[in-house]
Amino acid sequence: MELRGNLDPAAAWREIRCELRRVLGDSSYEIWIAPLEVRALEENRLLIAAPAATQGWVANRFGRVLESCAQSVLGTAIRVVVEGAAGVHKPIRSGGETASAPAAGLNPRYSFDQFVIGDGNRLAHAACLAVAELPGQAYNPLFLHAPPGLGKTHLLHAIGNYVRAFGGGSAVRYTTAESFTNHFIRALSSRSLERFKQTYRDVDVLLIDDVQFLASKARTEEEFFHTFNALYENGRQLVLTCDRLPQALLGVEERLRERFEAGLVADVHPPDFCTRVAILRKRATLDNVPLADFAVLELIAQRIQDNVRALEGALIRIVAYHSLTGAPIDTELTTKVLDTMYPRSTTKSPPAAAQIQAAVAAFYEISTSELLSSNRAARISWPRQVAIYLTRELTGNSLQAIGAAFGGRNHATILHACKRVAKSAGVDRHVDAELQQLRQQVLAARDDRSC
């Protein structure tokens, strides 16, 4: 793509900033990108001014993303130079590999190499790697579900980046359900529906993030249904992410839910303490974070337990404090920043429903997907009722909230499960012992602080 000419630098920078916010997320954007200013657009170079204290970090840490987003706006010929207050240049390190073409919508920072594997995400990672190596042949569709911030989007982009690097020219497209909807609406209003269909159906791998946002959008669902069928019937790969299981997508048509369940449904659980530390250690190594004391990583992992995005965001903010104040990244600075962002609670927070589900499923040697399914076999229904009972006991959540966490079950079903388990525990010592053992396992997992 040639460089777009006669474009005002300020207008170009506004477009680039919008793309950077989308790719990096609000936290990283506000800390590192918001302070940047455009200095000039000279031939094929975009000069960006950064605060002197953060110039080197921005150039090394975000250089390739800056260049990729600039190319998506200005053309592939553009190169980005990050300048300090005194006009000192910091060229972007290419790393020997060109950035992913922005047309695919992929973030080049998300790869399998940068993904930290733990017990909570092992199945999802293995499934994604298998799909990336054999698109359309391994698991199709692949449906990843987990609460926000646990790495679903990272895995989705990792598939896309892997296929683009090693797929022999296979066409890949990443989008969110919201972007798909907005694109469809624009296509309808501009009478460009055929071009819209080609955009999503003429690819070898389609990656759709957050499909829960398709709920209650009848015309978009209809179009997505036909897109899904067109790709699937031609042996093209589909990978979808969602914050809940397919059967819990009550606002989505049944025929779509059935297709989501037709392949492999893989869940992602919150990382344990050791995995959280490993994630932080890898991020610190990749970004050359000058740690004065590696104990700071354990402090962060102890304070933030159920969200990888928040985990990395805390490290980013600590590095920002270090860059702006010159204070060493030690336990004192880390505690100060964490106390501001995540104040210490005097009482321990209750375990999450997902933690209880995972513990019960492992105890009874079934999968979490089976536990949350509609299967009424005794080997599934009893563990499910035990998990519901413990969730009610240990979290104090309402019956409606528990029902939502267990695949959209209604109030009466949750109440029946609680009553049945309570009655059994009162007359059967074996059941009472199982419940006590499960309580200890769940609470121990919540309080885990060491590897």
Overall description:
- The protein is α/β, with parallel strands linked by helices.
- The protein has four domains: 9-96, 2-Layer Sandwich (GMP Synthetase, Chain A, domain 3), CATH 3.30.300.180; 122-267, 3-Layer(aba) Sandwich (Rossmann fold), CATH 3.40.50; 273-341, Helicase, Ruva Protein, domain 3 (Orthogonal Bundle); 353-447, DnaA protein, C-terminal DNA-binding domain (Chromosomal Replication Initiator Protein Dnaa, Chain: A).
- The protein has 19 helices and nine strands.
- It has helices at 9-24, 26-33, 55-74, 122-133, 152-166, 177-190, 193-201, 218-233, 254-260, 273-286, 295-303, 308-325, 331-341, 353-363, 368-372, 378-395, 399-405, 411-427, 429-447, and strands at residues 37-42, 45-49, 79-83, 89-91, 142-145, 172-176, 205-209, 237-242, 264-267.
- The strands form two sheets. A five-stranded parallel beta sheet has the order 6-7-8-5-9, with helices on both faces.
- α2 packs parallel to α12 (308-325), α16 (378-395) crosses α18 and α18 (411-427) packs across α19 (429-447).
- The chain is globular and about 80 Å long.
